[in-house]
Automatic annotation (TrEMBL):
Catalytic reaction annotation: dTDP-4-dehydro-6-deoxy-alpha-D-glucose = dTDP-4-dehydro-beta-L-rhamnose
Organism: Methylobacterium persicinum
Name used for this protein in its record: dTDP-4-dehydrorhamnose 3,5-epimerase
EC number: 5.1.3.13
Record has Ribonucleoprotein as a keyword: no
Highest rank taxon of the organism: Bacteria
UniProt-listed SUPFAM superfamilies: RmlC-like cupins
Pfam families xref list: dTDP_sugar_isom
SUBUNIT field: Homodimer.
Length: 183
């Protein structure tokens, strides 16, 4: 398993090795010891999975606030996404910057997103299935979101506002500057 820093060093790309033969391939997608060697020491407690039928579906930008923040390990089971992690830690030197990584089922790459980041993605193909581990249980009272296309952050999404397929919750999320104290 290779672990690679992104432009924001706390967000890491994880590339599991695949061992192939005439039948296909095998891969270890999660190994605590390999992640710990790369400095990712996170006790994951819950697995989540989403399915998005239309291409251009945007989910996010979501996070949980303390004392129930969530670190996430994201991977795609079918299709492809542009995965986004936005630093929302006000004291961080990378505050309000983001990392965008293409994840797809074919390559098997994963993205680790630590506490203090908002997460979202846009489907690049139809029929996308995303699986992710979290280190804190879902807590509705700590669940938050910021506007997916907040102009202060300036994410370069692969869809425009009138093309994006969004939930009403995501469409009405506040801009980061209006979201209050988060971390």
């Amino acid at each position: 398993m290779d672990v690679i820093e992104t432009d924001i060093p706390d967000v890491k790309r994880i590339i599991p090795k695949r061992h192939g033969d005439a039948r296909g391939w095998f891969s270890e997608t999660f190994r605590v010891d390999a992640l710990e060697r790369a400095g990712i020491v996170v006790p994951f407690v819950q697995d989540n999975q989403s399915f998005s039928a239309p291409q251009g579906t945007v989910r996010g930008l979501h996070f949980q606030i303390p004392p129930q923040p969530q670190a996430k390990l994201i991977r795609v089971l079918s299709g492809a996404i542009l995965d986004i992690a936005v630093d929302i830690r006000p004291t961080s030197p990378t505050y309000m910057t983001y990392v965008a990584v293409r994840l797809d089922a074919e390559g098997g790459e994963q993205l680790f997103i630590p506490h203090g980041f908002a997460h979202g993605f846009c489907t690049l193909t139809p029929d996308v299935m995303v699986a992710y581990k979290v280190d804190s249980y879902y807590s509705p009272s700590h669940d938050r979101g910021i506007l997916w296309n907040d102009p202060d952050i300036g994410i370069e999404w692969p869809v425009g506002e009138d093309e994006a397929v969004l939930s009403e919750k995501d469409r009405k999320a506040p801009r980061l500057r209006d979201a209050g104290k988060l971390f």
